[in-house]
Amino acid sequence: MLENTTFSILAPDGKRKLSASGRGPRHMFRNASAMASTMNRIAKQYPAKRSQPDQQPALPLMKDVALALNVAASDNLPLVVINALPDTKATAATALLRQVAWTRPLSGQFVYALAKDSKELKAISGAKPADQILVIEPGQFGLEGKVLTTFDHAEDAGTAKAKLMNVTRNFSRQPSSHRSHVRKGIELGIDWESQIPETDPMSIRARQRMRGRQ
Which of 22, 35, 131, 156 has its CA 20 to 30 A from that of 116? Predict the structure, then answer.
């Protein structure tokens, strides 16, 4: 196994393995259906905990906007960013999104993040300091994005859901060739520094060769 990537399914404690480990999902499952079947079986063993019976699970927020942009671009999904200034409105906005994010038409259709500082919105074209909830189309390489629509915490859940569903209907999900994507990134001098230190010698040498061609 190479040192730069690994795949496994862990229990909620982040320690106990619920599946074997491998380089990636393709090494563990025959196809997407087999993976989905295994994940559904495991998910039933760990139902989401709610403080109240009718409460939705927590909003799956990424660490920061920069990482969320990269993940959204990689997964070919739109991004929803909550502007955390002021905090009281961010709390209300988060509560609003929790009501709609887990509904069947929208579950898994967006990446979510909380902008803790206005500087995090600098890479977003069309973002304004007064915006409370921004729906964003990530750039091809996940380094920037543009605002598709905005709304605030005062919206009712039905209106918020309708706006997000409209985005999913019109969002252009264009699958790209991995080879051409990497080649174009090299040509443009685009690079992504992983938050996990890269230790695999082969991968490091390959990256150095690519940088040398710029």
Answer: 156
In angstroms, rounded to a whole number, what is the distance separating the alpha carbons of residues 34 and 9? 14
Cα torsion 135, 148, 151, 64: sign:
positive
C-alpha distances (whole Å) from 58 to each of 12, 66, 96, 124, 205 are: 14, 21, 11, 25, 41
Tokens of 27: 């090494």
By C-alpha distance, which of 52, 161, 149 is closest to 100? Answer: 161
Which tokens sit at 118?
Answer: 């206005």
Q: What are the distances in angstroms from CA 110 to CA 67, 97, 105?
A: 14, 11, 11
pLDDT given for residue 176 in this prediction? 67
- Full set of structural domains in the chain with CATH: 1-47 (no CATH), 65-170 (3.40.30.10), 178-212 (no CATH)
pLDDT value at residue 210: 65
